[in-house]
Amino acid sequence: SGRIEEERPTRQVRLAIDRGVNYVDTAWPYHGGESEPFLGRALADGYRERVKLATKLPSWLVKTADDLDRFLDAQLRKLNTSRIDYYLLHSLSGTSWDKLVALGVVDFLNRAKAAGKIVNAGFSCHGTLPEFKRIVDAYPWEFCQIQFNFLDIEHQAGEAGLQYAAAKGLGVVVMQPLRGGTLGQASPPPSIGALWSEAATLRTPAEWALRWVWNHPEVIVALSGMNEESQVEENLAIADQAQANSLTEAELALIARVRKQYREIMKVGCTGCGYCDPCPKGVGIAGCFDIYNQLYMYRNPAAKFFYVVRLGGFISGQRGYASQCEQCGDCVMKCPQNLEIPALLEKVAAEFEGEGLQEREAMAKGFLGVA
Hints:
Layout: H1 7-18, E1 23-25, H2 35-42, E2 52-57, H3 65-78, E3 84-92, H4 94-102, H5 105-114, E4 118-125, H6 129-137, E5 143-147, H7 158-167, E6 171-175, H8 190-196, H9 205-214, E7 219-222, H10 229-241, H11 249-265, H12 285-297, H13 303-311, H14 330-334, H15 341-352, H16 357-368
Parallel strand pairs: 1-2, 2-3, 3-4, 4-5, 5-6, 6-7
């Protein structure tokens, strides 16, 4: 359900703004389409003018050139505002970017900026590093948004993408700094907790993860999801102290050991480098393994749902399920980790594509607003 209990979340949003938060992020599909209207109400009483507001064009729903303006105008109404300070093309890949270009997205962005409907144009990306670089170079963006945390330094855009975008003058907004909350769990896997306990200065796993992201001077904003007032307070306190280049060599070495230990306890030792792409049958190999690891490493109950959201083709337009593998062996020859990819994909398919797959696909369509 997309239903939002209004009173407490409104207090939480306003508490964060009163304490100094000045960037608020939402998107068309969040909370079943209810996030933007909720935020429009929560930012009443003068709060809208105290923040930079970010939302995202649902790229996968755009079928015609007219859809570009239709979605933006609807979002302005939902958010009860005359402008979007930071407007992103949501979840681009190379394929979806090319589709939008063919529909005139460059002209659309220029017109919307000239009209004052958009202040800064950007995009979010879960694609490979080469795709990310190509999109960075294709338009004079002001900013971009990437997944980045101490475990995903080579995953998707990764650290190389962060540095590439910053060198081109883009502000970089980081999503998943805690990897969906998994890196911030108060009770991490025992071998990880043992390493954190060796630190000269003891910190929570969430603080280590956020400090590592903010240690990078290229990062302008870290988007950290918060459900409890205590999480708001903790994140604000960490943000108040964390500075770029503030971690010591010993602390960075400890984080590197934690990263190595996480990778050792992963079900699949995939780094997300993308060397196996493209699969002749369209399998999203790195995505399959990433979600498989999430299910087992972090006991993430939502992993089976996100498998469908990410690989069902509803966003990218190309289904990438593990079961599409025909064991041609092309990926095995390319893999730097020497993984037996087809055999591993069989395990992924058995885990994620059995009972309940159609129900999860229906839920994903509802979540994304796909007909």
